[in-house]
Design a protein that fits this description.
Elements: H1 6-26, H2 30-53, H3 64-81, H4 88-109, H5 115-132, E1 144-145, H6 160-183, H7 185-195, H8 197-202, H9 207-233, E2 235-236, H10 238-241, H11 244-257, H12 264-282, H13 288-303, H14 308-327
Antiparallel strand pairs: 1-2
Helix pairs in contact: 1-6, 2-6, 2-9, 2-11, 2-12, 3-4, 3-5, 3-9, 4-9, 6-7, 7-9, 11-12, 11-13, 12-13
Length: 328
């Protein structure tokens, strides 16, 4: 956050982490903890999109391809080969990273960018959905049901608070990656690529290599989100984990909160989870939440093109200016 000093930024990180840690103890109902899990889950997968789409400007409409790859990689290892579900986390990261490498290598080697790259990611997601729907190892269209065996050692918890702290740890990891990108040479190179690829190339940046790296990193994180989803809901099928709605949610979380920022996906995720819970509680109309998501996105783009976090920055800047004038 540009308006914050280094000390203020660390204070913000620590304060938000403290709030997140105490949240399930203060709001201990099953509904509240589930809301916290979903908000952090949206924040995590939104941050995975943000790393490629926000920091590097590689907009993707099919980021769910990494999510689904991670979900199936972890579940197949568990159900077909008897691996402990915890091994699904690194396995899903590898699966997401490998898919990211394949898509990035083929797309960027062919010179695809902008809307063409966005559409090719959507095409890859659809291809993997069809494959998962057709082969026996994935369970085909019936999907894969994970038996309920509550045990922390089995990545299943009798209380949702266990899942809450797992997804909190993953979200902290994703925020740490975002902070690193804001301050590292790699992140600066990605920002240059986002603003102008030709200018970045003229500065000596290997645009192809950096774009491949960032999509692998983004894919790895998104794949881990798929593994967590599988263990939390204990069921996956091609329509669920390769469905376009997941890609829409990732994109919305970042765009509404503020793409290319550290905490934008977290702000967008809280709002998204709130809208989702309210619509489910008030009506059974299918797809209403997506209509509301779209309406929110239109409003944000029209009035706050840099996301809600930009509004918070303005308020903070005005508050600081008021304090300075008051103390003068």
């Amino acid at each position: 956050m540009n308006a914050l000093s280094r000390g203020q930024a660390w204070a913000l990180h620590g304060g938000l982490l403290a709030i997140a840690v105490v949240f399930p103890f203060v709001f201990s109902t099953s509904f509240a903890v589930n809301f916290g899990v979903l908000a952090l889950f949206y924040a995590f997968i939104g941050q995975s999109w943000n790393i490629a789409g926000g920091f590097a400007g590689q907009l993707s409409f099919g980021h769910v391809v990494f999510f689904g790859a991670g979900a199936y990689a972890s579940t197949i290892l568990q159900m077909r080969f008897g691996f402990n579900p915890w091994w699904g986390l690194p396995a899903s990261a590898i699966a997401g990273g490998v898919v990211g490498f394949v898509i990035a290598f083929l797309s960027f080697r062919a010179g695809l960018k902008g809307s063409y790259f966005a559409l090719i990611t959507l095409a890859f997601a659809e291809v993997l959905r069809i494959v998962a729907n057709s082969v026996e190892i994935t369970g085909g269209g019936l999907g894969m049901l994970i038996p309920a065996k509550p045990s922390a050692a089995n990545f299943q918890f009798s209380e949702r608070i266990g899942f809450y702290f797992v997804i909190l740890a993953l979200t902290v990891l994703s925020v740490a990656v975002a902070v690193w990108l804001k301050r590292s040479r790699f992140g600066a190179q990605l920002a240059a690529i986002r603003e102008n690829e030709d200018a970045a190339r003229a500065l000596g940046i290997n645009v192809f290599n950096e774009k491949v790296k960032v999509l692998m990193l983004s894919g790895a994180l998104c794949g881990v989100g798929g593994a967590f989803f599988a263990q939390y809901f204990l069921y996956i099928d091609p329509t669920i984990v390769f469905g376009v709605d997941k890609s829409v949610e990732m994109l919305l979380v970042s765009m509404i909160g503020g793409a290319g920022t550290v905490y934008g996906p977290l702000i967008g995720a809280v709002l998204l989870a709130g809208v989702s819970d309210v619509t489910r509680a008030l009506t059974d109309v299918q797809g209403l939440s997506l209509v509301l998501y779209g309406t929110l996105l239109v409003i944000i783009i029209a009035f706050l093109p840099n996301g809600l976090i930009d509004l918070f920055k303005r308020v903070f800047a005005r508050t600081q200016a008021g304090k300075t004038q008051g103390g003068a």
